[in-house]
Design brief:
120 residues, mainly beta, 7-stranded mixed sheet, 4-stranded antiparallel sheet, elongated
Length: 120
């Protein structure tokens, strides 16, 4: 039994900041890539950022320089620090992780989603 629980969404004014957190729990042997996705109204879900277990990071062009993704392998947690938020960042954000309960059994897991609204 593995689950991802994310938190930290809310309402923020343009230019403000939010920090999203994602905690994995259950029978975890290891966690591979962790990522953050978002889905805005009327749009498809898109990758925001991802980070490997070794710390390699990729960002969507739209968030480079504003968002920072991180993880704590010892705690099985991940975070997305969002700065200089824009109205176009408004979306439901989802945490994603590849998790293995035993060696070589990675499977995808998704958080429940947390809503971020950027508006004045």
């Amino acid at each position: 039994q593995v689950q991802l629980v994310e938190s930290g969404g809310g309402l923020v004014q343009p230019g403000g900041s939010l920090r999203l957190s994602c905690a994995a729990s259950g029978n975890i042997f290891s966690i591979g890539v962790m990522g953050w996705y978002r889905q805005a109204p009327g749009k498809e879900r898109e990758l925001v950022a991802h980070i490997t277990s070794g710390g390699s990071i990729n960002y969507a062009d739209s968030v480079k320089g504003r968002f920072t993704v991180s993880r704590d392998n010892a705690k099985n947690t991940g975070s997305l620090q969002m700065n200089m938020l824009k109205s176009e960042d408004t979306a439901v954000y989802y945490c994603y992780a590849q998790i293995s309960s035993v060696r070589n059994t990675y499977a995808p897991y998704w958080g429940q989603g947390t809503r971020v609204t950027v508006s004045s």
